[in-house]
Amino acid sequence: MPISPDSQRYTAFNTCYGTYQFLRLPMGLSSSPGSFQLLMDKVLHGLTFNSCLCYLDDVLITSETFEQHLSDLHEVFNRLQATGLKLGPKKCHFAQKSCLFLGHLISKDGIQPPPDRITAVQEYPSPRSVRELRRALGLLNWFKKFIPNFSAEIEPLTKLLRKTPNFVGHQNKKMHLPS
């Protein structure tokens, strides 16, 4: 993404070999993600939430049929090409029945947590201190959107966060997701 000549001086940095300025938007500037998302929103305008979802450089194209998927891919490719944006072939996956998108498993059945996240909870050791319990609750908190009455389910654990000198963890038990 090119930077206007007037703004290039704000990206300047010095080295022993001289002063340099970025000509294209580098990742790492505080405004880079917002600027890039704005560009992607413009490029995919009219397609987002109809046939595709976009978060920065992650684009998910969804279609009812394979033929429609080919048409949707063609439209997205044309728009990216017209803007000069390129895809990394190793990062692209086409015509998948399910995929990981932004840390979630997406399929025709809906949005689910990926199996490796579930396994991480199942294999997580039972907390033995308030600090370890906070860490465990942080891990469990990611699942709250998938578990009805999540707060009620974890209430017995959150009660243990109160400052008590008698915290006793269950050392031989593994954590589990509420049903």
Describe what you observe in this structure:
This protein is of the alpha+beta class and 179 residues long. The protein has two domains: 31-97, no CATH class; 113-179, Alpha-Beta Plaits (2-Layer Sandwich), CATH 3.30.70. 36% of the residues lie in helices and 14% in strands. The protein is built from six helices and seven strands. It has helices at residues 5-8, 32-43, 66-83, 115-122, 130-141, 150-159; strands at 13-15, 18-20, 52-55, 58-61, 98-101, 104-107, 110-112. Strands 5-6-7 form a three-stranded antiparallel sheet, with no helix packed on it. A two-stranded antiparallel ribbon has the order 1-2. Strands 3-4 form a two-stranded antiparallel sheet. A hairpin with a 2-residue loop joins strand 1 (13-15) and strand 2 (18-20). It is flat. The model has no long low-confidence stretch (mean pLDDT 87).
Task: List key phrases describing it.
179 residues; alpha+beta; Alpha-Beta Plaits; 2 domains; three-stranded antiparallel sheet; two-stranded antiparallel sheet; 36% helix; flat; Rev_trsase/Diguanyl_cyclase
Number of distinct beta strands:
7
Shape: flat
The termini sit apart by 47 Å
Number of domains: 2
User: Radius of gyration over alpha carbons?
Assistant: 23 Å
Helix/strand-derived category reads alpha+beta
Number of helices: 6
Low-confidence stretches: none
The helical percent reads: 25-40%
The major sheet is characterized as: 3 strands, antiparallel
- Topology as H/E string? HEEHEEHEEEHHH
Placed side by side, the strands forming the largest sheet appear as 5-6-7
The percent range for strand residues is 5-15%
Look at the structure and give the mean pLDDT: 87
Pfam families: RVT_1 (PF00078)
Protein name: Retrovirus-related Pol polyprotein from transposon 17.6
InterPro entries: DNA/RNA_pol_sf (IPR043502), Rev_trsase/Diguanyl_cyclase (IPR043128), RT_dom (IPR000477), Viral_Replic_Matur_Polypro (IPR051320)
Domain Reverse transcriptase: 1-106
